[in-house]
């Protein structure tokens, strides 16, 4: 199995791009059925979700818009448990169907914060799509409407996800070797 090194850590290939792409196609199919008459605003949570948002949006066949927010909580391989908003939204949220796009829901702290912030603006509906989901790490109580792939509770990089800023450019996903 292919191995790579980023900074001081070794990682092994765990999810090839073909599998990622297939999971995104399934999310897109579901959205094409459920959201085609909703004129949704996709809200991409930066940085990690840029690749997922870009690949997903190309597979959507209905009118939709996208905007970007940046929250951050991770340093190295650990969550700081403290989510801060860095870049806010400029689009009108009130009365609209909002679909939050995340690369990963891990502990769930970030998505909880994003949902809290966005619900303040009275959207018509607030939906969540995450490329990856770690059920063993998740401590939240929200429903994730669109999930790509459920993964074990190990630190991963690639396809937008980073280890201290590195590895986002990898097309496949790699798991840390302990
Ligand atoms: O469910 P959680 O435990 O909160 O983890 C998920 C969040 O962590 C990552 O963001 P990060 O804060 O690392 O910022 P980044 O996207 O800029 O890498 C990821 O993009 C999610 O937003
Ligand atoms: O496993 C992960 N890898 C990179 N970033 C993350 N943010 C939450 N979980 C992770």
Task: Give an account of the 3D structure.
With 178 residues, this protein is α/β, with parallel strands linked by helices. The protein has 3 helices and 10 strands, in the order ββαβαβββαββββ. The protein is globular. The longest helix is centred in the first third of the chain and has 18 residues. A 6-stranded mixed β-sheet has the order 5-4-3-6-7-8. Strands 1-2-10-9 form a 4-stranded antiparallel β-sheet. The chain has a single domain, classed as Rossmann fold (3-Layer(aba) Sandwich). Hypoxanthine (HPA) binds next to strand 9.
Backbone structural class: alpha/beta
What portion of the residues fall into strands of 2 or more residues? 35-45%
Report on the biggest sheet.
Answer: 6 strands, mixed
Q: What is the molecular shape?
A: globular
Q: Please give the number of β-strands.
A: 10
Following the backbone from N to C, one meets helices and strands in this order, namely: EEHEHEEEHEEEE
The CATH top-level class label? Alpha Beta
Mean pLDDT: 93
Q: Helical stretch count?
A: 3
Describe this structure in a few short sentences.
Belongs to the purine/pyrimidine phosphoribosyltransferase family. Helices cover 21% and strands 38% of the residues.
Write the layout of secondary structure elements.
Blueprint: E1 3-6, E2 9-15, H1 17-34, E3 41-46, H2 50-57, E4 65-75, E5 78-87, E6 97-105, H3 109-119, E7 125-133, E8 146-150, E9 156-157, E10 173-177
Parallel strand pairs: 3-4, 3-6, 6-7, 7-8
Antiparallel strand pairs: 1-2, 2-10, 4-5, 9-10
The chain binds 1-O-pyrophosphono-5-O-phosphono-alpha-D-ribofuranose and hypoxanthine.
């Amino acid at each position: 199995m292919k191995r790579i090194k980023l900074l001081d850590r070794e990682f092994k290939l765990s999810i090839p791009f073909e599998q990622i792409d297939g999971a995104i196609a399934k999310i897109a199919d579901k959205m094409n059925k459920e959201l085609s008459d909703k004129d949704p605003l996709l809200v991409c949570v930066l940085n990690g979700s840029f690749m997922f948002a870009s690949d997903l949006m190309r597979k959507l066949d209905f009118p939709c818009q996208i905007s970007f927010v940046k929250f951050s909580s991770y340093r190295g391989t650990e969550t700081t448990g403290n989510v801060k908003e860095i870049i806010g939204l400029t689009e009108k949220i009130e009365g609209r169907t909002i679909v939050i796009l995340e690369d990963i829901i891990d502990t769930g702290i970030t998505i909880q914060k994003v949902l809290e912030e966005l619900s303040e603006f009275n959207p018509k509906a607030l939906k969540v799509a995450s490329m990856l989901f770690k059920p063993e790490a998740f401590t939240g109580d929200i429903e994730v409407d669109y999930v790509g792939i459920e993964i074990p509770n190990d630190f991963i990089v690639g396809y937008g996800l980073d280890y201290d800023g590195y590895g986002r450019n990898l097309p496949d996903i790699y798991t840390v070797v302990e």
